[in-house]
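3.2 Worked example (two chains)
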Amino acid sequence: MRDRNGVAERLAEAMNYSNTWVDDLRTCRFDDIVIHDAPVYEHGIIWPQPWSLPISAREA
């Protein structure tokens, strides 16, 4: 597989970045952490931009 324009590298960075957010939320005693990649209409989570995903968490 060829990495054109550093796409694989940027994807790896994004995955690591999201893991950092999850780790930070767990450190702050949050659980039930979800990165939403689809709308959850019943809870008002509607976000049409695919490049920025909402995160929800509950206080433990």
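3.2.1 Second chain
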Amino acid sequence: MKWQASHPPLDSEALGQLAPESVLVEYDGLRMFTCRDRSSRLLFAYQCDQEGDLWRYTVAPCSEKQLSRFIAGELTIVQMLSVPWGWVVDIRDGSDIESIWEVDPTALPDDYRPNPEVRLVPTAEPDLSIKWVGDNIDQGHVPLSVIKYASDKAISVVRGLVEYIGSREQYEFTKKQAQDYADLPVSHVTLASFQLSITLPRPVDEDVFGNPANEQDVRVASEMKRLLTKVVKWSSVPGLAKDPTTGPEESIAVLRAIQDLAPSGLTAVQSVELGGRLVTESRAESVGLSPETRKQARESIKDKVKELGPGVKEAIRWPERIQATGVITGGVFNVNAFFLSEVGPVTNLDSDPPEDIEEWPFGDMILFSFDEAVWRPSVVAALDHKARVTVIGKRERQAEMPDGVILANTMPHYNLIDFDRRTAGTSGRSLPPAPSRLLDI
């Protein structure tokens, strides 16, 4: 046998007879089946090794719902075995249990685990496939920059919807929780053009051991599918769908997802095609996104921001720290604030490493408040000379805004942290990406 236990076996009768209840795969013997232990707990058995008439199985507990999903092709064999504890069982002549070891099935040798994509039935249609298309993207020639671009966009779409769900449902996600919810599994990668096939989490009422599922996990999974379905449906309508039953907050979240998916036309990616079960269920023949789609989504977001008014902060993800280049075109100096307009580029300093935001999605103005004693002379000089400046700002909370700033709720607003008036016409990178005094903010 390919694996030898480092600990003593259990009694050979510890689990009972393990008589097959449902034969899933039989070929010259039982390859895969279900059975029950002494306490009638449902078990899944997978034949992983053989030596003569001695057959070895990896056995793991499972639920009826998990088994149903496996039979339907929704789960892989590896997913059925991905539990923290189970057993390796040696059975001779198809019926006599010879040895049982308690194990962590996920820690067994690779030879004991099938290909991660193997299912009981042929691979099911993915929930959502995203295909990035361009003149220089084809089989055998997919630049690393395109792979990074596509991955970043897919993560951004899902993360934005997760943050919207958390805000609306008042879930206090930790950063890791939000990352875990957004880190959806990719079931397949295709390098002709570049395509990711994504599997959505399934809302289930109980876990593999029959315990009640976490209510928050169930809700997030259900809402994720609903919102991505809306992204697909809206994208399939020329000019984007206008749904009067969807409130402005949710509309912004959906439109932001569409904007993130649609190409800017400034990279190798010229169009994006959506497919998979969500497209099929939406009865859309095809869903294609272009730079024009991105423009339409951006304009629709602006309309929804105006409609939302004071509630805008609940719907839009403003980076905590940004570096932005623009022109100071106006100021409210009695409350130490100014407007930065003709904005671009804007760099998100929250990301690691800092990355440029291709198009600032909140219009062409950012509101900054500033410390009068430190920055007033520089701000006034920049206003007088109409010079392009590069600034670093930390996002303001509404409670921290000075009285009298009436636009605080209708556009992004930041507190000025650093200022450079010598950067006219540059890319905005002459300032350090994270000045030392920002680290403790």
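3.3 Remarks
Residues 166 and 173 are 7 Å apart (CA to CA).
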